[in-house]
Amino acid sequence: EVQLVESGGGLVQPGGSLRLSCAASGFTFSDHYMQWVRQAPGKGLEWVGRSRNKANSYTTEYAASVKGRFTISRDDSKNSVYLQMNSLKTEDTAVYYCARGDYSGGVWYPSGPWGQGALVTVSS
Amino acid sequence: DIQMTQSPSSLSASVGDRVTITCRASQGISNYLAWFQQIPGKAPKSLIYAASSLQSGVPSKFSGSASGTEFTLTISDLQPEDFATYYCEQYRSYPFTFGGGTKVQIK
To answer: How, if at all, do strands A10-12 and A118-122 pair?
Structure first.
């Protein structure tokens, strides 16, 4: 069974840092691009960023709202992707989901699955 | 950034109804459009990709279509488990962007 499990969420003060982890199982992790999406309490979904696979040099893309503060990395030997969040702001409070993508006809698409989410609360 | 305008923001329907949700992109995205379902308290689940391709394991009561920059999700024969919030997402260009969501409620 394909599964993603996030961990590392919690309460952090504004300006602080936190690192989320997403452990994958049930598929060949190294083949896949992985992305992070967040959802503020009672709000809609917001794309955070994406990491390509080794074949594509692990390159990353980010939303403007987090660029320069958040970093996506991965360790294929541990089947894990990470979201390092620095200089956190109150508006970063959200449930953070990691999600997998797939390929169809040579085109990538956000197939899922998604993890269960990790709640990050930024508050003093 | 590409804006995704989703409508309606909510709708009420009865079991057995057919409902349609629309997403309009602010510029061309070809067919790089996905639909997700989110049940309260749960992670989103992929339904449709490439505008009209059904994700593996998703029942055929869900269907997607496209016309230019307008995309439609249709749900046939609504059942209690279908009452949820639905989101579209464009993945044509960065940053990927989501529609605001459509909450499907029981009438």
So the answer is: parallel
